[in-house]
């Protein structure tokens, strides 16, 4: 098992924090140019709310998909390391609705994304047909 180097991790955290600080300062600078400190605070609050909504939607999607599947992988019936998979990926405009998701164990989920599951295409088509 490969262990991460603490110095490397610390350097990565410092870079991430530096980028966050730069973004924060840039927002503050833009806000100052507009002449309103309130505008900056409002933008920051809106950004935080949007992040919280996305995080909540992702967790709620997973919870609803797992409940609908009875906390079992819908492909192999395993109960270990369950994950929610989107039929239509979010990157292609797929919604965070339970109808767009399926409960898979980590092994099946990895197989789907690696395209190593031979019967996946026919199996997924039959699932979509059954849902319609």
Automatic annotation (TrEMBL):
Residues 15-32 have a biased composition (Basic residues). It holds the Pfam family HNH. Residues 60-110 form the HNH nuclease domain. Signal peptide: none annotated. Residues 1-34 are annotated as: Disordered. Keywords: Endonuclease, Hydrolase, Nuclease. GO terms for molecular function: endonuclease activity; nucleic acid binding; zinc ion binding. This is HNH endonuclease. It comes from Engelhardtia mirabilis. The lineage of its organism: Bacteria, Pseudomonadati, Planctomycetota, Planctomycetia, Planctomycetia incertae sedis.
């Amino acid at each position: 098992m490969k262990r991460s180097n603490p110095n490397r991790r610390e350097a990565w955290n410092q870079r991430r924090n530096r980028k966050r600080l730069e973004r924060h300062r840039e927002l503050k600078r833009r806000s100052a140019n507009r002449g309103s400190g309130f505008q900056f605070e409002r933008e920051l609050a809106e950004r935080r709310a949007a992040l919280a909504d996305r995080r909540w939607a992702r967790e709620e999607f997973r919870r609803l998909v797992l409940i609908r599947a009875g906390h079992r992988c819908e492909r192999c019936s395993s109960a270990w390391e369950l994950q929610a998979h989107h039929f239509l990926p979010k990157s292609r405009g797929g919604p965070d609705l339970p109808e767009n998701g399926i409960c898979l164990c980590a092994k099946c989920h990895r197989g789907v994304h690696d395209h190593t599951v031979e019967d996946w295409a026919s199996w997924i088509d039959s699932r979509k047909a059954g849902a319609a």
